[in-house]
Amino acid sequence: MNAISFSLILAGVILNAAGQLLLKAGTNAVGHFDFHLDNVLPIGLKLAFNPFILSGMVAYGVSLVVWIMALSRVPVSIAYPMLSIGYVINAFIAWHWFGEALSAQKLLGIGCIVLGVYVITRSA
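Structure for EamA-like transporter family protein, as requested:
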């Protein structure tokens, strides 16, 4: 895998992770909600115009374009497992920004993910 291909994959993963984190920040700003027929419109409008939600959707859109470019250069059997790095990024940023738990069990799982991605990319 050359530097451009790797950069595209990494950019796609980071944009995807950023999108997820921005959506979480947006839902935190809106607060807990349940969709009912009587609140679909008010909650939908709150979500639709929340800057974090909008930014997250843009990040997802850009990540889709970048990901398509990456897939045109790298076999999907190599590229797709690298999306798992997004779990690692999200876990640490969610711990830092949102105060989410980062237990020993999660860290072990993150280690397994990193090892698995390493093994898959080395097999190419």
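The helical segments are 3-30, 40-48, 51-71, 76-82, 85-98, 104-122.
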